[in-house]
Amino acid sequence: MKKILMGIGSELQGDDGIGSIIAKELKNKEWLSLVCDTVPENFAGVVEREKPELLVLVDAAEMNLPVGSLRQLPTEKLNSLIIGTHGIPLKHLVSRLEKASGKTIFIGVQPGKIRFGDSLSEELKQAKQKLLLLIEKNAWQEIEKLF
Known about the structure:
- By secondary structure, this protein is an alpha/beta fold.
- Helices cover 29% and strands 20% of the residues.
- The protein is globular.
């Protein structure tokens, strides 16, 4: 099974970098891990060329939950939940990528602090470990859906 993880977010802005950090730390040969930073649209061609059976995108999302909470997010709600550090609205990008992948999952992580120069909060360090473990065990389905 071909699987791609796209990690999104700026590591220069504290908790916003969670997706990129997860992509950097995922060391599983079953996954192609893409560190997309704030320009995930630059990696759309890779996804379209590879045509993964599973595509997982990870980014910080304002979900009004406790810091570090993980949720699967519905595509139609992305524009209202995702913090705006990206070049294009993620809803449009995900709509494009869904056509190239068998299944597309968007995982949001509730951030705490997003300020330039901040490091990852302790809550997100714990969420990172939990999410990496779920991905390694192919147990991402255990992440609750937001709606």
